[in-house]
């Protein structure tokens, strides 16, 4: 990693030794949070940083941390990964699409904790204006903008995984604030996400004046990236294009390519020119992936068919063509190690050591924006223009045609190809399930075959028929509400497939 430790990570370390530790525990203690903590702008800054810190690890006992959930929710039900010999029964059930309400990976607790940290900043930070005359309206707006943006991102994860969810917008800061909540419809949650992001956009800077901070904290461009993704999910394609163009036209981002080492720039060093927003793990705060992906303790590995079926193996040319996103970037082909988080070089020869497990988690990068725009304009009957954007992605990766070529005259053909290109580009970045589901559910599940085809590849043959039957029930595409939540919140109703 870069020698310069980011501002976010420095503040995380400060928080761990500061008085706001009680606040981060999220154990309501009447009066403490409201009366004693919210006095100065420094405390507001620390509270905002606590939001980011909550994404790096679980703050709730045995509950699974957010990043591990982001990976598993986005990849475990797809053909991209296979369980290793140390995979636990709950993980195996995800693979087999047999998730039950007792499955620990359906526990959304850590996501709602992050949401509560956001709610607390939004609710209590404005009161500091009257207590600290060095705290400006601009600084307050930025703090609220960051909280609104992260809260929106968390709700977007929840909607895509659970559909209807409780929409909690006020802070839990005392015992009296803990009240049962019913679910809100996914449409209403998505509408609120859009409204919050539009509110946050003018509050946030386009830059903090430091590259690492620009990538580790949300900026105005992060808002645009999330909005483009939300609009794509909502099938609002003109709005998606508008948000993508704000990023493209800024000229502040570009694809890593040319003579640059894609693996080193994007995944080993991190915070590249392509990055829009990524979580800043470092030597003091490691990511959870090392033991998950290491061959001797493996819970997850790359699927064996990826090189041949996704990235391509050239058996024609004397000097084989090679997609730079395959071996040595996404995976190590010899042992199916997920290389993006485990590798130390692009030659696929050297692993990170356990104390170097600080590869960042990338939420959004410029390639997302180009492919989001390509998908949107293709749905707006512009397949030729969509193909030009896809070609930019493929050219930088030295991709080659091994299973058919792009048909820039066909909307349906480009839809298929863009989905395939996203599979290559974002391998193991927690996006595959959402990409396939989004394309499958479009136009009232016009393309359910996308999900059925994926199941045919990802699930063992003896379990496929049962999985096919489940997939044909659209309610099965969303996770169950965790049993503990059902027991403690009597207003919750279990999701339809699991009743």
UniProtKB/TrEMBL annotation:
Gene Ontology annotations for the cellular component aspect, listed alphabetically: cell outer membrane
Keyword set includes Transmembrane: no
Compartmental location: Cell outer membrane
A Pfam family hit: SusD-like_3
Cited CDD domains: SusD
Major place of residence: membrane
Gene3D superfamilies given in the database record: 1.25.40.390
InterPro entries named in the record: SusD-like_N, SusD_RagB_dom, TPR-like_helical_dom_sf
Limits of the RagB/SusD domain: 233-498
Keywords, in A-Z order: Cell outer membrane, Membrane, Signal
Domain of life of the native organism: Bacteria
Record-annotated SusD-like N-terminal domain positions: 23-232
Entry keyword Secreted: no
Family stated for the protein in its record: Belongs to the SusD family.
Protein name, as recorded: RagB/SusD family nutrient uptake outer membrane protein
């Amino acid at each position: 990693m870069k020698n310069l430790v980011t501002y976010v990570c420095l503040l995380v370390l400060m928080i761990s030794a500061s008085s706001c530790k009680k606040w981060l525990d999220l154990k309501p203690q009447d009066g403490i949070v409201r009366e004693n903590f919210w006095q100065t702008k420094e405390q507001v800054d620390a509270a905002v940083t606590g939001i980011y810190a909550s994404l790096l690890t679980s703050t709730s006992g045995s509950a699974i941390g957010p990043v591990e959930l982001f990976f598993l929710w986005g990849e475990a039900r797809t053909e991209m990964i296979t369980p290793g010999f140390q995979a636990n029964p709950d993980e195996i059930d995800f693979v087999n699409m047999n998730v039950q309400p007792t499955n620990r990976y359906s526990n959304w607790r850590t996501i709602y904790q992050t949401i509560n940290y956001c709610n607390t900043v939004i609710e209590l930070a404005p009161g500091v204006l009257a207590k600290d005359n060095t705290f400006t309206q601009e600084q307050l707006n930025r703090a609220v903008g960051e909280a609104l943006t992260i809260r929106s991102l968390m709700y977007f994860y929840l909607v895509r995984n659970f559909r209807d969810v409780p929409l909690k917008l006020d802070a839990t800061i005392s015992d009296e604030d803990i009240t049962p909540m019913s679910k809100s419809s996914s449409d209403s949650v998505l509408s609120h996400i859009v409204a919050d992001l539009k509110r946050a956009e003018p509050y946030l800077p386009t830059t903090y004046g430091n590259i690492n901070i620009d990538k580790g904290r949300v900026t105005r461009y992060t808002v645009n990236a999330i909005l483009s993704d939300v609009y794509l999910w909502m099938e609002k394609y003109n709005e998606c294009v508008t948000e993508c163009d704000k990023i493209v036209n800024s000229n502040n981002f570009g694809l890593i390519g040319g003579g640059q080492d894609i693996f080193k720039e994007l995944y080993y060093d991190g915070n590249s020119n392509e990055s829009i927003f990524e979580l800043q793990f470092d030597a003091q705060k490691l990511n959870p992936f090392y033991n998950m992906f290491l061959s001797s303790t493996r819970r997850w590995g790359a699927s064996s068919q990826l090189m041949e079926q996704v990235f391509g193996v050239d058996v024609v040319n004397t000097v084989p063509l090679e997609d730079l996103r395959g071996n040595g970037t996404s995976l190590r082909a010899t042992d199916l190690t997920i290389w993006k988080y485990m590798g130390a070089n692009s030659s696929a020869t050297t692993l990170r050591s356990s104390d170097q497990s600080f590869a960042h988690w990338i939420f959004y990068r410029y390639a997302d924006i180009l492919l989001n725009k390509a998908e949107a304009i293709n749905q707006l009957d512009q397949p030729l223009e969509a193909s030009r954007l896809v070609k930019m992605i493929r050219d930088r990766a030295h991709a080659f045609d091994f299973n058919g070529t792009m048909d820039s005259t066909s909307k349906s053909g480009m839809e298929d190809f863009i989905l395939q290109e996203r599979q290559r580009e974002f391998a193991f970045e927690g996006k595959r399930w959402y990409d396939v589901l989004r394309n499958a559910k479009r136009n009232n599940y016009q393309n359910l075959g996308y999900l059925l085809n994926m199941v045919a590849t990802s699930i063992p043959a003896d379990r496929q028929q049962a999985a096919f039957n489940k997939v044909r029930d659209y309610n099965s595409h969303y996770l169950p509400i965790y049993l503990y939540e059902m027991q403690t919140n009597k207003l919750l109703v279990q999701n339809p497939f699991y009743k």
